[in-house]
Amino acid sequence: MSRTATALGSVLAALINIAFALVLGAVLIAAVGEDPVAAFFVAITGAFGSLDGLAYTLHYATNFIFSGLAVAVAAHAMQFNIGGEGQAYVGGLGTLGICMLLPWAPWWAALPFAILASMAFGALWAFVPAYMAARRGSHLVITTIMFNFLASLLMIYLIVNHFREDGSMIPSSGPIAENLFLLRFDQILMAFGVEIPESPLNVMALVALAACAAITFLIWHTRWGYELRAVGANAAAASFAGVNVNRLVVQAICLSGGLAGLIAVNEIMGAQHRLMLDFALGYGFTGIAVAMIGANHPAGIMPAAILFGALYQGGASLSFLFPSVSRDVVTVLQGLVILFAGGLAHVLRPISIAAVSALLEKSKAGKAGVSWNS
Q1: Considering the domain boundaries, does residue 363 fall inside one?
Q2: How far apart are CA 166 and CA 174, in angstroms?
Q3: Neighbours of 374 (CB within 10 A)
Q4: CA–CA separation, 123 vs 252, rounded Å?
Q5: Higher pLDDT, residue 102 or 289
Q6: Are 264 and 118 in contact (CB under 8 A)?
Q7: Domains held by the chain: number
Q8: Dihedral, CA atoms, 257, 165, 174, 95, nearest 10 degrees?
Q9: Domain membership flag for residue 223
Q10: What is the CA radius of gyration of the chain?
Q11: 368 domain residue, yes or no
């Protein structure tokens, strides 16, 4: 079975699953007394119908790319890292630390250091679960869930007792220096005469694309990536071939944590301009669905991230313009997409891959027949 058939079949399965989710979503919207067609039109328009809405969609998608890549890297070693939120929280400490150490630096000079610091802190938070999984046989799902709670408690303690401004009741640190605010895309467009409302979309979107390219090269074009995939396919055979399985598993999970930590740079330097409590809430777990829909490949993770970015932004427009469609209904709609396109991704994938493969073989046979007759 060719790579083309596998890729096209996976895409077809994802589209069918998303269609099923939208059909059930339409039934749900109709059940609360609203027109599903009008509701979906509002959601699509809110996500893509204006430059402002598109900017917010892509901002959310940037975070989902980082969290999706984090899940995907570990998944290639058959490790299920669901600690992205905790790793992003701790990555925020690294980002804030750079902002506090370099308050005089322009954003473009501080950005590389913030990226390295956030990745280092995220990787460090992932190291203990990684070591326990590789050396002690602990279940990574359990340990990363525990570390999510630990990270949340750590953030509460640090923000309330050390980073909060004097006299402020807001659970956040003080604002970072204005010169550390990342360049936004509305500012870039303004330089070319295109005016759009201010949005949080910033240069970290380009960093996310660079991360996709880097992970693609690392996993499919390096020896380390080949060993990673070998461990995921058969750890015993990889060990017999000379691969240090435990070391590679720890490296993969730590790299996963580092990628999740990049969410902090996008939020702290690009959007919130301060360290806020729960700034990564929802991104880590949604990243699981993004990675599953994207088949753990950056080429699939990018459109999947845009899909969930659209669900976030379009859902906000939907709940605003349709009072009977509450945020809870929007959350259920997002959950349906996660259930079908993520949780049930492998149900239709073998069937769709086989169907696409059969069509490709039939097409090749038809072309061969035409060539022979000519």
Answers
A1: no
A2: 9
A3: 5
A4: 10
A5: 102
A6: yes
A7: 1
A8: -30
A9: yes
A10: 22
A11: no
